[in-house]
Amino acid sequence: MRGNKTNIAEASMIPAKVVAIQPLDTDGDGILDMDDDCPEIAGIASNKGCPPDRDEDGIADDKDRCPRVPGPLANNGCPYDRDRDGVPDKKDKCPNIAWKSPTGCPPDTDGDGVFDPYDKCPKKFGSKTNNGCPMLSKAEKVYLQEISNIEFATGTANLERESVRRLAGLKDIMLKRKEAIVLIHGYTDNSGDDQQNMLLSYNRALACKAFLEDSGIAPKRIIAKGFGETRPLPGVDQSTEAGQRANRRVEFKLKY
């Protein structure tokens, strides 16, 4: 028993074997992982353990502003990105519009080819020539042309009863096209005082504006202006009663 105890005591006094931990060099390039910026890709010491040209664009990493993305020398090793939205031109379907998305383009909710930020009617399919809003129908165009000759009591801005009835169609268009703004331009013939004509044409445009407001159209959607006799219809002889009557008009234009 004594012998066993002695052996155990002597064994406990034998120092344990120390195992040295070798520093890792995963890619085997001679540069330890702790000092290697690319520990899984063999590289060179002068490039901190990374390949001299990781993106293989022919430009050494130390001179490449985009060492992980190939690009031309003329752009310092970075891909071209004209709009600077982070989407390279070769992947950017809208290279002149800065927009951070996979395609580099803004959304187009209604799919009409007009991007939402530039679409006055982003939820309605429209036309590029009409700011992304639906074009006027043929009937609407004819109607707007026909109501230009609405009548007022002579020398006043008071709408005749028939004119009020005819303007109801414009109210319906404005209620249907909620994004539209109507421009109301009043004109007179060349008889009478110039300043009085200017005021009269404006008041007539205002009378039409008041009718629409009373019909529930927001004032901000109606712009009224008077031009007096300054913009006569081309080719119309105002020396005749018919010519003067044609120039006593109010024009209506919808815009978005």
**Main sheet specs:** 3 strands, mixed
CATH architecture of the domain at 138-255: 2-Layer Sandwich
CATH names the topology of the domain at 138-255 as 60s Ribosomal Protein L30, Chain: A
Strand composition percent? 5-15%
Number of helices: 5
Instruction: Name the overall outline.
Output: rod-shaped
- In the predicted model, the low-confidence regions spanning at least 5 consecutive residues are none
Helix coverage percent of residues? Answer: 25-40%
Short description:
The protein is α+β, with helices and mostly antiparallel strands and 256 residues long.
Please give a structural write-up.
The structure is a single chain. By secondary structure, this protein is of the alpha+beta class. The protein has a domain at 138-255: OmpA-like domain (60s Ribosomal Protein L30, Chain: A, 2-Layer Sandwich), CATH 3.30.1330. The protein has helices at residues 2-12, 138-146, 161-176, 194-214, 241-247; strands at 181-186, 222-226, 250-255.
Question: Which features would summarize this protein structure in a list?
Answer:
256 residues, 60s Ribosomal Protein L30, Chain: A, 3 strands, 3-stranded mixed sheet, 7% strand, alpha+beta
